[in-house]
Amino acid sequence: MSNFASLTRMRIQLALRNRMFFFFSVIFPLGMFFLYAGIFAKGNPRVVSFFLGPVIALNVMGSFWGLSAMLVTFREQGILRRFHATPVSSTDMLASSIFANYLLTLPTVCIELLFARLIFHVTNLGNLLSLFVLVTVGTVAFASLGLVVASVTNTMQETQVLNQLLWLPLIFLSGATLPIAYLPKVAQGVAVFLPATYLVTGLQNAMYSSFPVWKLLTQILSLFFWTVLTFFVAAQLFRWEPESKIPRNAKLWALATALPFFLLGVWENKNGQILTQAQAAYRSLDQPAKSDHPPKAEQPKSDSPSMGTLPHSKKDSQPQP
Predict the structure, then answer these.
(1) Per the count of CB atoms within 10 A, which of 48, 67, 75, 115 is most buried?
(2) How far is 317 from 306, CA to CA, in rounded Å?
(3) Whole-number Cα distances in Å, 263 to 67, 164, 222
């Protein structure tokens, strides 16, 4: 344990010196917080509460980008080679990287909650236990994804390209940027195949609708099992030396990490409640607030409700029966 603690402390110190990691762990999340709360939500506490889950999800997901870039940089600069000369296993290195990343993510999340309360007067922050569980599982899950990315790329350029290919669908189709219920029907069907969707909807339900942990088991368990799989793959593919070649089957191993959410997406499209809950939370924004607490999720009557801060679709302008 003493070696793990020392390694974690050293990883935190190295991370704070890495500009890309600092940007995606601190600057980017806080920038998105003020963008959503101040411009999209127009400072409305109820709408800020609705957007707070997706904003925190962006913070949690950003860990995969910063961690993958940092690990590849360390390998290119020979820092990992120095660690390899010590009695440290690849599992120790990866686990300490994830734990250090988690410790660096928590302060930013706490700052966002504090700003929501003090600056935008959000009196109800939802179910804090559910929030803590999802932030913990989500941070570890996406950090493990970052480790896989670092294991199947050789240079920083390759890492950035692969991160872009993963990042764009994760943020635009998961509800992290636009509410899922506002997306076209086809995009909603694709969204349930993405791990980010389960993090975003879970955090939004925990904070806006105050869902307890037992109501979020689908999101929590899916992210947990995905974490186990991605960490196992990352441990198998991890390389200390920049000269080490990537195994031929490495990309197949990496592709296999998408299997759990492929199966879950098929099930959700037929029987799931993820989209139903997201649509219900979205529709509730058009309803007058009866109390300080946001309304609980209900069964929606339409797929594309309107929201004051977003443009209305033609379907929304038609009179409802």
Answers:
(1) 67
(2) 9
(3) 27, 24, 11
Question: Residues 48-66: pLDDT tens digits?
Answer: 999 999 999 998 988 788 7
Rounded Cα distance between 57 and 282, Å, is: 17
The one-character DSSP state at 319 is P
* Integer Cα distance of 274 and 264 in angstroms: 11
Treating both helix axes as pointing N-terminal to C-terminal, what angle do 90-118 and 2-17 enclose, rounded to 10 degrees?
60
Higher-scoring residue by pLDDT: 287, 209:
209
In terms of C-beta density within 10 A (0-12 exposed, 13-18 middle, 19 or more buried), how is residue 309 classed? middle
pTM listed for this prediction: 0.84
Q: What is the dihedral of CA 36, 52, 148, 190, to 10 degrees?
A: -80
What is the spatial distance between Cα 14 and Cα 53, in angstroms, rounded to a whole number?
29
According to DSSP, residue 182 is labeled G
Task: Dig out the tokens for 148 from the structure.
Answer: 């896989």
- Dihedrals phi, psi of 211, to nearest 5 degrees: -70, 135
Q: What are the structure tokens assigned to 78, written together? A: 């020979």
318 secondary structure, DSSP code: S
How far apart, in whole angstroms, are the C-alpha atoms of residue 283 and residue 277?
A: 10
Written as one letter, the residue type at 204 is Q
> Please, is 236 exposed, middle or buried when counting C-beta atoms within 10 Å of its C-beta (0-12, 13-18, 19+)?
middle
What is the DSSP secondary structure assignment for residue 153, as one 8-state letter? -
